[in-house]
Amino acid sequence: MSGVERPELGPVPETALWTLWHRALEARRPDGVLVDPKAVELVDRIDFPFAERFGSGELVGQLQGLRAACFDREVADFLARCPRGTVVNLGDGLETQAWRVDNGRARWLSVDLPEAAALRRRLLPPDERRRILDCSATDPRWMDEVDPADGVLITAEGLLMYLRPSEARALIGACAERFPGGAMVLDTVPRWFSRRAVQGKLRDRHYLAPPMPFGMDADQRGQLATAHPAVTEVREVYPEGGRGLVRALLPFARRVKQRPSVVALGFAES
C-alpha cells in the first residue's frame, strides 16, 4: 500500500514513528514476540523513510516488542479484573495497544501533544470507546476526562524519560492522588543512557535521539514510592519469552542494575 500520510513532527513526538517502525518490524516476523497487525498497517500507510532514518535492526525490534508486551500483560490483567475500566495512555503517539488487548468493553483515552494527537486522529480515528485528547501529560486537566468509577489504569510508555525528574515525580504523585485504587505502568531508562541522550550522543544511522532528562537504574525503582504517600506498590514487570540469544540472556539481565525497566505502581484506596 502506498503512503498516504506525510507526518511532520518535532523531535520528541517523532519518537512515535521510531517505536511504531520497530514494533512493525517485529510484528512482520513469523516468529515475532509481538502480534501487532495494526502497526504493520500504519507503517504501510505512512509516507516516511522509516528504514533510511531508523534502520532495520532485528535486535531493536525484538526489544521494543518485548517492552510493549510487558505493558500489554499489565493492561490485560487490569481488564480481566475491571472489564469496563478506563485505560489512559499518556503520550502514546501511534501506540496500537488498544487493538492488541481490547476486550470490547473497556474505555481508552489517548493523551498527547497537539501535533501527535492530530496525527493519531487522522490515522486511528476515535470512536465511542477510544478517545483522543490534545493535552500534555503533565497538564492535570486531562484527569477531568477520566471516569474512575469502573477502575483506572494509566500507562506511560516511552514518556517519563523525556520529562525533567521533578515533572516525572509530580505526574506520578498527581495520578496517585487523583485516582485512589488505580494503577500506573511506566518505563524508565538507566542513568547512563539518560546522560548520553542529554549530551546528544545517542545516534542510530540518521536518527539522533532527543534529550532524556529523567533516568533511573532498575534497582532504584523503590524511589518512585516517594512521589506520593498513596503509592503503595512498586514492582518490576519483567520481559518474557524472546528468541535466540535474547531469550537466553533475559534471566541474567535481571541482575544488571543499570538497565531499562518497566515498573507497575499501585495506588492506595481512598
From TrEMBL:
Source species, domain of life: Bacteria
Gene3D superfamilies associated with the record: Vaccinia Virus protein VP39
A Gene Ontology biological process term: methylation
Keywords in alphabetical order: Methyltransferase, Transferase
The keyword Acyltransferase belongs to this UniProt entry's keyword annotation: no
Any Pfam family hit: LCM
Protein name in the entry: Methyltransferase
Organism: Streptomyces rubellomurinus (strain ATCC 31215)
